Structure formats: structure tokens, C-alpha cells
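Researcher: Go.
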Amino acid sequence: MLVTTLRIDGQEFFLPDEADIDQIKERVLAAAREGAGFVDFTVRDQGRISVLMTPRVAVRFEVVDRSEAETAGWDDDHGSFEFDPATFIS
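Model: Structure:
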């Protein structure tokens, strides 16, 4: 199974099959050209992501061949995460 991977500043994101890769590339370039901006996209196993892009952020698109065993469970419901700033320790 071919999977498109997006690496942003060293972090790897697996994009869903229906992702419009050309559109994501255009939004990344536009944000970098403007100096900075958020780029939103959907990730196969994490839901919706919003990343702050700047001209200094390394971005790499890659198409990799993954086995079904490697991709098993990617589309499962991973629940939600709630953040309570009152309990956050810096």
C-alpha cells in the first residue's frame, strides 16, 4: 500500500489516501513566502493538525510502500484529548 508521508521539522505525518497533496504543498509554500502562517491538514491516525510554517521549517513529502500490518489500526477511532490548562505544569 502506497502511503504519502509528510515530514515537518522532523515530525512524520501519514496523510490519508484522499488528501490533496498538491493543495497542501501550495499552502505550505504560501505560508513560507508570507513569512509565517498556519497550515491545516488531516492526518491518517491523528485527525486534524494545524502547523505553524515559516521559511526555516524543513518540509518533506514522501511516498512510501507500507504493508497492511504496518497500517492496521490507522483509521481506528483514537478518542479525544482534552487539555485543562489549570492542571498543566510548565
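Model: The two ends are 41 Å apart (CA to CA).
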